[in-house]
């Protein structure tokens, strides 16, 4: 009976295998023209393999890495992994005798297994047996390099050659790079994996059902996939560069990234972001000429500001001033305008140019609150919230979450509009073009219809309907963990529609730059149908640039906002400048 039950369980198609086969069918329907002969052969051959073999491959693809001990691949629905692997080994999808380095063995083995495996070498190294696993790895690396006479050599051999007494086997998923390429084509990125199906099936993540057709896909030509993978490889190379690396290695990486050519706007933006990160790495190493060359070839929004900074650090003040003056006339964003406004006076002084008087800045109310320091560590925002809150005027810690969520609930339809290039698989949290310059323009009519509801009053019903009907669905704007029907109702009662419209309009001008920086707390007076925003700063904390910009915007439009500096009772401020009174005001550009 037990044997029959196990056989019956094995005959059932595992959910993860069904999901993987769904993905392959999706790819076959949408990407047939982009697949090469090897990929076509994989799709066709995979379906002919025994179920246990298919299930084992998917199990390995869903786990991290390409190397696995057979003893750790024991699943009831698969049975013996060495038997299941044979058909795949025949197709060279799985290598059953891969060459393994010392590092590979340490990643695959417990400390006890390593002491047994390397017993002979460890016996020749005083004190090695007592070392921690990480230290033992370094010691054995050095041992084998010394033995070979090559400081960079690392022996590589099958597990049986390392450990003749073992009955275990190590399997390498040779087909993994091809499957990663298919995964990229399906998801449009490499940070999502096949577990997305499982998480969705279990209800951990819920996604909006977007009505896209069979032509919806992330890549329109095979070269785009190649470009994505090339950029990804360069990004990983940058992340793994040692601190003391040879400068030539970084220069080679720069040359590689600059040589990658694409007409795809989305991929070009990824390339620009990577160049920007490389430029920042050059700056950290004080390689000013390299940083400047990278930024000059970079279209990432912050690159022009970094060019100014590099020119200034290189004492090329005239060039820095000229570039800053151009940006002052036509800033690319509020963030750049803010930074340039700080730089210009300094650069003008260094160039001997008169510094004009700065225009009078708007002010935001700022005061100090002296409170007893909690006995246990707790966020200062919660301390202020609890101190200020009352039945008549409740205070909530919301930071960016509440107003972002109201925007997401009102504008659900335009955010999830099935436009070309926006959605191409069932597991997207947000449209692929969310941060593209034309995100708003492509949906201008739909956003205008949503904003018109703020004028007519219909927005309340739309927000509450989406709060109910879309509950828990993934969204780039909605923070379900914070939202309650009571909080949303309170916000809709106390936040004027005109203020919501102003906030939402600012977001659409620069989603990347403006989605954060809102004040920490919101205070409601339900009986009076009004509110105020409160930014909390603990001892020694300062306003960040994005917070200053939001405060200035709120002040400009007459929104109730203030900054509260917290000082713990009994702790003297560092200077008189640290003390503010409730009547004090802070200038915001």
From TrEMBL:
Its cofactor is Mn(2+); Mg(2+). It is an enzyme of class 3 (hydrolase). Keywords: Hydrolase, Magnesium, Manganese, Metal-binding, Nuclease. It comes from the Bacteria. It catalyses: Hydrolytically removes 5'-nucleotides successively from the 3'-hydroxy termini of 3'-hydroxy-terminated oligonucleotides. Its EC number is 3.1.4.1. InterPro entries: Fan1-like, FAN1-like_WH, FAN1_SAP_bact, tRNA_endonuc-like_dom_sf, VRR_NUC. Residues 454-568 form the VRR-NUC domain. The keyword Ion transport does not apply. Pfam families: FAN1_HTH, FANC_SAP, VRR_NUC. The keyword Cell cycle does not apply. PANTHER family: FANCONI-ASSOCIATED NUCLEASE 1. Belongs to the FAN1 family. This is phosphodiesterase I. It comes from Paraburkholderia podalyriae.
């Amino acid at each position: 009976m037990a044997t029959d039950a196990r056989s019956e369980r094995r005959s059932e198609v595992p959910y993860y295998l069904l999901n993987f086969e769904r993905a392959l069918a999706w790819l076959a329907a949408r990407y047939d023209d982009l697949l090469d002969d090897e990929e076509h052969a994989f799709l066709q051959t995979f379906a002919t393999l025994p179920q246990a073999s298919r299930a084992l491959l998917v199990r390995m693809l869903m786990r991290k890495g390409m190397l696995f001990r057979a003893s750790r691949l024991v699943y009831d629905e698969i049975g013996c992994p060495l038997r299941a692997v044979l058909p795949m080994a025949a197709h060279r999808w799985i290598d059953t005798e891969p060459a393994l380095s010392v590092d590979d063995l340490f990643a695959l083995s417990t400390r006890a297994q390593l002491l047994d495996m390397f017993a002979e070498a460890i016996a020749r190294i005083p004190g090695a047996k007592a070392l921690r696993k990480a230290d033992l790895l370094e010691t054995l690396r050095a041992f084998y390099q010394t033995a070979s006479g090559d400081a960079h050599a690392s022996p590589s051999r099958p597990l049986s050659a390392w450990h003749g007494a073992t009955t275990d086997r190590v399997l390498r998923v040779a087909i993994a790079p091809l499957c990663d390429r298919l995964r990229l084509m399906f998801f449009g990125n490499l940070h999502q994996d096949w577990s997305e199906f499982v998480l969705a099936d279990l209800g951990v993540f819920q996604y909006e059902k977007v009505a896209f057709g069979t032509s919806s896909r992330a890549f329109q030509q095979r070269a785009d996939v190649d470009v994505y993978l090339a950029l990804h490889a360069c990004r990983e190379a940058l992340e793994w560069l040692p601190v003391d690396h040879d400068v030539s290695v970084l220069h080679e990486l720069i040359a590689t990234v600059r040589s990658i050519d694409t007409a795809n706007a989305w991929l070009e933006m990824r390339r620009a972001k990577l160049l920007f990160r490389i430029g920042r790495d050059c700056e950290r190493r004080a390689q000013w000429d390299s940083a400047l060359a990278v930024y000059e070839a970079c279209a990432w929004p912050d690159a022009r500001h970094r060019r100014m900074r590099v020119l200034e650090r290189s004492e090329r003040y005239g060039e820095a001033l000229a570039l800053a003056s151009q940006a002052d006339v036509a800033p690319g964003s509020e963030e750049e305008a803010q930074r340039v406004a700080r730089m210009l006076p300094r650069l003008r002084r260094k160039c001997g140019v008169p510094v004009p008087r700065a225009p009078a800045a708007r002010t935001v109310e700022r005061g100090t609150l002296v409170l007893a320091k909690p006995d246990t560590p707790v966020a200062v925002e919660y301390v202020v919230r609890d101190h200020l809150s009352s039945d008549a005027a409740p205070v909530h810690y919301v930071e960016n979450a509440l107003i972002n969520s109201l925007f997401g609930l009102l504008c659900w339809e335009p955010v999830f509009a099935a436009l070309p290039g926006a959605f191409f698989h069932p597991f997207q949290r947000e449209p692929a073009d969310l941060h593209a310059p034309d995100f708003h323009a492509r949906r201008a009519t739909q956003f205008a219809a949503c904003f018109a509801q703020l004028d007519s009053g219909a927005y309340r019903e739309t927000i509450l309907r989406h709060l109910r009907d879309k509950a828990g669905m993934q969204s780039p704007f909605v923070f379900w963990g914070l939202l309650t029907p009571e909080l949303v109702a309170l916000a809709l009662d106390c936040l004027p529609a005109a203020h919501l419209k102003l906030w939402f309009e600012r977001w659409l001008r620069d989603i990347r730059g403006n989605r954060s920086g809102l004040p920490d707390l919101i205070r409601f007076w339900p009986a009076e149908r009004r509110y105020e925003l409160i930014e909390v700063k603990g001892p020694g904390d300062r306003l960040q640039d994005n917070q200053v910009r939001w405060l200035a915007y709120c002040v400009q439009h007459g929104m109730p906002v203030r900054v509260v500096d917290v000082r713990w009772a009994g702790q003297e401020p560092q200077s008189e400048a640290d003390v503010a009174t409730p009547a004090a005001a802070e200038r915001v550009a």
